[in-house]
Specification:
The strands form 4 sheets. A 4-stranded mixed sheet has the order 2-4-3-6, with helices on one face. It has a 3-stranded mixed sheet with strand order 8-10-9, covered by helices on one side. It folds into 2 domains: 101 residues, Protein Binding, DinI Protein, Chain A (2-Layer Sandwich), CATH 3.30.910.20; 96 residues, Skp domain (Protein Binding, DinI Protein, Chain A, 2-Layer Sandwich). The longest helix is centred in the N-terminal third of the chain and has 26 residues. The chain has 231 residues and is α/β, with parallel strands linked by helices. It is built from 9 helices and 11 strands. α3 packs antiparallel against α4, α4 packs across α5 and α7 runs antiparallel to α8.
Length: 231
């Protein structure tokens, strides 16, 4: 006579266990409500968030676009810069997501649940962005993997070279014109190389031709002028 009640209690226990397991599955499920900036929601089990506006604000290509007062729809120049900024941002997002082992990244507040705590990876993405965006003429060094880049006003430096000033008073038909120009160019290049070496810079670019997400770019013009007088 006890079999009925015992069986009922066992069924109730199994039902309760089923509800607990179902609750665990629901608790682990990702709920994405915000904009996805990396990955796909379908099948995602782990997630993180990134302040994408902060990332773009620290993207040197996007910084150049804004410095010129452009937007992404401003003809060829604005569209080109935005496309490059977007490419660099997406590359950084992908690298960070792979390192952090997350399937999807949304804007802050855009995802809950999942198998792991939701981390904010904004700074890690920023750190993966290029440090510099360079468009100006390379005056010294190499740009490939350059870690320290400075700028220099070549017109100001040349104006400080006596041989250059003398050459400007002559024409190409004057006997000393080309000799003075050659001497001035050698002093110009030598002064830049010395200033770059002393400052530990891998490359020097024409002024206003480089922008950095780390802040103002060092101006080597005064140091190069000083190097002209170095024995």
């Amino acid at each position: 006579m006890q079999q009925g009640p015992n069986r009922a209690r066992r069924l109730a226990a199994f039902a309760g266990l089923g509800l607990l397991l179902l609750g665990a599955v629901v608790a682990d499920a990702l709920l994405v409500t915000g904009k996805v900036v990396y990955g796909k929601v379908e099948g995602a089990r782990t997630a993180a968030v990134v302040d994408i506006l902060a990332v773009y604000a620290n993207n040197p290509i996007y910084m150049r676009m804004k410095a010129e007062g452009l937007v992404e729809t401003d003809g060829k120049r604005g569209s080109k810069l935005f496309s490059e900024a977007q490419g660099a941002t997406n590359k950084a997002l992908a690298k960070v997501a792979l390192d952090a082992k997350v399937d999807v990244i949304t804007v802050p507040g855009g995802v809950t649940g999942g198998e792991q705590p939701i981390s904010d990876l904004t700074q890690r993405v920023i750190d993966r962005l290029p440090v510099y965006h360079i468009e100006g003429q390379l005056l010294c060094g190499t740009l490939a993997e350059a870690r320290q880049v400075a700028e220099l006003d070549s017109a100001v430096l040349r104006a400080a070279i006596p041989a250059w000033r003398e050459a400007q008073k002559l024409t190409e038909n004057d006997a000393d014109y080309h000799l003075l120009r050659k001497k001035a160019q050698e002093q110009f290049e030598g002064a830049i190389k010395e200033a770059a070496h002393d400052g530990g810079y891998d490359a020097v670019v024409e002024k206003k031709g480089v922008i950095s997400r780390l802040g103002p770019v060092a101006d080597l013009t005064p140091a190069a002028i000083a190097a002209l007088n170095t024995p």
